[in-house]
Amino acid sequence: MSNIFERSAGATGMRDYLLGLQTGIMGALQAMEDEGEDGAKAVVDPWKKGEGELLQGEGITKIIEGGRIFERAGCGFSHVRGPRLPPSATQHRPELAGAPFEAMGVSLVFHPRNPYVPTVHMNVRMIAAGHPGTKPVCWFGGGMDLTPYYGFDEDAVHFHRTCQQALAPFGGDKYPRFKRWCDDYFCLKHRGEQRGVGGVFFDDFSELGQEQSMAMTQAVGDAFLPAYLPIVQRRFATPYGERERDFQLYRRGRYVEFNLVWDRGTHFGLQSGGRTESILLSMPPLASWAYQRTPEAGSPEAQLTEHFLVPRDWV
User: Fold this and answer.
1) Which residue in 79, 111, 121, 267 is the catalytic one?
2) Is 190 in the active site?
């Protein structure tokens, strides 16, 4: 199978960037865990797809489990090649149906222990595809979004403002456009409910040309720690009890629903023959479901759905 990225300028620099991004983010989390005696150590798991498998390539999974701050925090780097783009990747590029492809990216989901700290997702990626004898088509995707269990306006504003500032050098239209895209994408359509307070999301993006599209994608990746860590530091020591923990697990069930039913990244990985453990590192360690659960009127739990889980302008 040919290396499609060899025909795409900038792929080597993107790979180096992604590896550095993964190292920097997980290093920041490890530093927070190390501040207490009960902090957990990240497991580093390099992997490589074996000969004869549908997908070829390699990656590194880094994950913290059972930590004092992060109950489960997984961050994966992957660089893979496949003989045919899966259906989830050709919805908007029918001319590439069945074409060989190559993809690299970093994807993370962090599930904190304290219910007052929101779950977060971030992903940045580069994909190239092309039929033999043709010039490959290259595009980028990514974004980040915040999923609180107990909402705070200042946290949502900070997260969105950081995303806005990261995208500003690439055009004033990018944040509002990608914010709306995020709201539309991270929605549990079978429930008519947002997954969280959103953030930014973009896919199949190449309109700035390869160099600037890559730079924009990297700017989103670089903005992740400034967007999220101040929220963690502000909330992780907030006292909580059984009520808050129970509600957190219930809302985590909605997170699972979205990832398995609607998420194109999950579908892409499974359809293309990706590494299951890495694809599903986004799953929380514990979650629960309840039949027609209705929060008490005027409660913080009711405020989540009434005020935070609806699309709104945060900046």
Assistant:
1) 121
2) no
